[in-house]
Amino acid sequence: MAGWNVGDIPDQRGRAAVVTGANSGIGYVAARELARRGARVVLACRSEERGLAALERMRGEVPGGHVELLRLDLGDLAFVREFAAAYEETYERLDLLINNAGVMAVAEGRTADGFETQFGTNHLGHFALTGLLAPLLLGTPGARVVTLSSGMHLRANIDLDDLDTARKYGRWLAYGRSKTANLLFTHELARRLAAAGSDVVAAAAHPGYAATNLQTAGARAEGRKATERFMRVGNRFFAQPADAGALPTLYAATAPGVAPDSFIGPRFLMWGGATAGSPRAPWTLDDRAGELLWERSERLTGVTFDQLKS
């Protein structure tokens, strides 16, 4: 794995991929490199304007690449259902689902369905999307689901009695919990896939400290100019570029031999390369917590993974 880079991505011709949040940052780089290796890539973006700009830019960078845009708002479960239905109408397979999109450290708010914004977008939206696309994933030999977490999951375990962090909201607490939820989801998905005898691989990744608009978007939207400036300085002087931050995602999505429930991160914790030994909190490997989160997520979203039921 040492020194692994985009040149090591296997040929992706004939494969279909969905990358959420592909209009910028890690998602954009991952989508671009998959297209460069021949995959047919769907950019799943909330903003049509930013999605179209990303599509035009990517087609310029990867001439002849098979790249398309479908709108997806993970904070609206009706939108998630529409996206999944539109994808199924057009595509016969799904080899790679990269659950990349997310929000970070935003002010307390609610999704269209009434869930806390970070838990609802980062976890529930991707849970529902994966469940709705599960028939295609299970029907595609060698498919993978890669869900983006963060080293910030170490800040907080989830509270099954307060999934919305309603008792005492803290923007970083809620973010950490949503990233723990991403890892518990991957853990339970991997367990259920194995129990069903499926060869679909569920893995997780995190980019370390990578310069993307994730750090500045929340502060900019809320008018917190000092915080936005602070984040921009950090991105400029301390973060690795998005191209490097995307390597763990691309490794998890394409490298041979990635084990189910792997957590792929930077080789040096925050920077550089990709390694399957990224530090992971023990609570993200809790079978009982994973099962309970799964059951509650099914109830909250109304999405069930019927093909994985025993």
Write the layout of secondary structure elements.
Layout lengths: L15 E5 L4 H12 L3 E6 L2 H14 L4 E6 L5 H14 L5 E4 L17 H22 L5 E5 L22 H25 L5 E5 L8 H9 L2 H13 L4 H4 L1 H8 L8 E2 L22 H15 L9
Helix pairs in contact: 3-4, 4-5, 4-10, 5-10, 6-7
Organism: Streptomyces ossamyceticus
Pfam families: adh_short
Protein name: Oxidoreductase
Quick overview of this protein structure:
With 310 residues, the protein is α/β, with parallel strands linked by helices. It has helices at residues 25-36, 48-61, 77-90, 117-138, 171-195, 214-222, 225-237, 242-245, 247-254, 287-301; strands at 16-20, 40-45, 66-71, 96-99, 144-148, 201-205, 263-264.
Would you mind describing this structure in some detail?
With 310 residues, the protein is an alpha/beta fold. It is 44% helix and 11% strand. Helix 4 links the parallel strand 4 (96-99) and strand 5.
List keywords for this structure.
seven-stranded parallel β-sheet, 310 residues, globular, single chain, 7 strands, alpha/beta
Topology as a string of helices (H) and strands (E): EHEHEHEHEHEHHHHEH
**Total beta-strand segments:** 7
Beta percentage is 5-15%
Separation, N- and C-terminal Cα atoms: 36 Å
Classify the secondary structure makeup into a structural class. alpha/beta
Radius of gyration: 18 Å
Gross morphology is: globular
Assembly context of the chains: single chain
Uncertain segments: 215-220, 230-238
Strand order of the main beta sheet, please? 3-2-1-4-5-6-7
Helix percentage range: 40-55%
Largest sheet: 7 strands, parallel
Protein name: Oxidoreductase
Pfam families: adh_short (PF00106)
Family: Belongs to the short-chain dehydrogenases/reductases (SDR) family.
Keywords: Oxidoreductase
